Amino acid sequence: MTGALRGVVALDGPSGTGKTTVARKLAAKLGAGYLDTGAMYRVVTLAVLDAGVDPLDADAVAALARAVRCEVATDPATPGARLDGTDVGETIRTPRVDAAVSAVSAVPEVRELLVQRQRTLIEEVAREAGGVVVDGRDIGTVVAPDAPLKVFLTASAEVRAARRGAQDTAAGRETDQAAVLASVERRDRLDSSRVSSPLRPAEDAVEFDTSDLSIEQVLVALTELASTRGLLDEDVVEPCR
């Protein structure tokens, strides 16, 4: 039987590498908590758009980020997100938010605010559940630099665009594959070149290319990594509360 996770697994990577799906499934498999930090930036981005604030107006974006209540679920069995108490779990995954989230995420004040919230959540969930899997773009480098296991997932832009297009189709959204690929490449450029917490692997991260791997294959590999790092309690898996 797979052991329960004890400690923090930091899972980073660009859009479309499967990190959110992998992180949630890994947390469920190992009886751990789960935190999707990207969802927090998406909630703030939705708030910015709904308020009619220009995503490039850093001061206005930062002020709004301080004013809104951003909540994300930490149970892998019931992922979700709320903006000022309203369920926005589906809305934050739309192309409208996709197009603006990099600009909002690049605002240093927004990152500072959300990183502090993320660190608090990680501490709380790890204390309650014993372990937590956290995914994002700066977990291993900024949010949880002391995590005993850091993984940086990669995949080719074409593969990632195909995955994103499939997700949109499954969700009933119209898909233009060329536009999706352009969006993926644009997000890569913006996330990798921003001044505050740019997307990059931590020096001690394990880099893992998921281009030709199924979700299950990635899960098996990450479970083995956690085991070799001594992060699995080989007793009974406890359900995440």
TrEMBL record:
Keywords: ATP-binding, Cytoplasm, Kinase, Nucleotide-binding, Transferase. InterPro entries: Cytidylate_kin, Cytidylate_kinase_dom, P-loop_NTPase. GO terms for molecular function: kinase activity. Transmembrane segments: none annotated. Residues 9-226 form the Cytidylate kinase domain. Its EC number is 2.7.4.25. It comes from the Bacteria. The keyword Transit peptide does not apply. It is an enzyme of class 2 (transferase). ATP binds at residues 13-21. Its main location: cytoplasm. It catalyses: CMP + ATP = CDP + ADP; dCMP + ATP = dCDP + ADP. It is found in: Cytoplasm. Gene3D superfamilies: P-loop containing nucleotide triphosphate hydrolases. Belongs to the cytidylate kinase family. Type 1 subfamily. NCBIfam families: cmk. This is Cytidylate kinase. It comes from Prauserella alba.
